[in-house]
Amino acid sequence: MLDSPAPSVSPWRHLAAFLTVVLLVALDLGSKQAVMPWLEARMTAYERHYPGPPPEPALVRDHHGPERYPVIGNWLAWMHNLNYGAAFGRGGGIQKLLVPGRMIAIVVLLVLVWRAPPRRRIYLSALVLVLAGALGNLYDNLFYKPIYPDETKPFGPVRDFIDVYFEVWDWHFATFNVADACISVGVVLLLLSTLWGHEEGQAVSKEAPAAEPSGPEQAS
Length: 220
Prior knowledge:
The longest helix has 30 residues, at 11-40. This protein has a 5-stranded antiparallel sheet with strand order 1-2-3-4-5. By secondary structure, the protein is of the alpha+beta class. It starts with 10 loop residues before the first helix and ends in a 13-residue tail after the last helix. The protein has 4 helices and 5 strands; from the N terminus they run αβββααββα. It has one domain.
């Protein structure tokens, strides 16, 4: 019995995937460029760079120490953080490995997006999100120059500004950015795609046209 041909991948699918990556990276970099200087102009740590009284609205100093700008109540705020490590501030001492690792991961993700099987929408969405997040953070490592750089670091820091505070536990979640959010959601979707991939594959096989049975030709 002949196998049915694999469904072809539409070029529009690739175009939509990579346009989504571009839009997510633009959202990440645009939000960083808008929020981080706005915070710096109001922070005591940057008074030498921004002489004169800080503009309004002023930041609120948390009882833990950091200066924040509350956005929604006290649980969501903008808070300035320069992260020389991996996601959520881990691994700052091995930056020489982290940044090349991000470059390699981006190349692998580009290949995986290009070769993603048709109908695997969750899998493709996960790859697109992780790729966009990796590109946004890699841009900061390679091109962002902070006002007061850390000369001991070979690459630039990643700009984080989203702060979530859980008052019931008096605990701040690690400050993050849009790129980190893309990576986190993408990883969750990637895990889900491994659980649902079999069902998606079955759906593809059902939609594919059945092959005609082989056998000797019958006389007319």
